[in-house]
């Protein structure tokens, strides 16, 4: 933790250092929050991402994983055809043509896609339970996973108290060689540090 006198200095530190590489580890820097504030912020962010995704894709493209090696494009289309008009069905393959075990099925309408999710998720095909969900762009999936990760680790890793006046920053994933003094040095470039503590 690093405590700043000036909130603007704390924001500068967050903007400059969050996501930086520190001895091979990506560090996380953010303003310290109470648990209830963190949860509300994460929930709002997740809902915003979810709504953007729903609006952008209109719920027609499905991601299907845990496919058996012998499932090809034709078979994938056949398995999902009962739910509506399929505009495309594709099993992802390696350069030599072997299945990667996942694929995509795109329906004409969101209603058809929703019905397919309900009926096909966890259905056994070739003795393997399928995972079927709306397809997401990589950046949306990363944002969702980051949000879920922060929710899981927030109560375990983040203290709920402030260690001094001003603004506290929470810094996660520091290299073991970083001590209180090195932490203070790194963050002092952004403003007056009232305390720096590696916990």
UniProtKB/TrEMBL annotation:
Tell me its family: Belongs to the polyadenylate-binding protein type-1 family.
Source species, please? Magallana gigas (Pacific oyster)
Per UniProt, residues of the RRM domain are 60-137, 167-199
| GO molecular function annotations of the record | RNA binding
Q: Write down the SMART domains for this protein, in alphabetical order.
A: RRM (SM00360)
Q: Which keywords does this chain's UniProt record carry?
A: Repeat, RNA-binding
User: What name does the UniProt record give this protein?
Assistant: Polyadenylate-binding protein 4
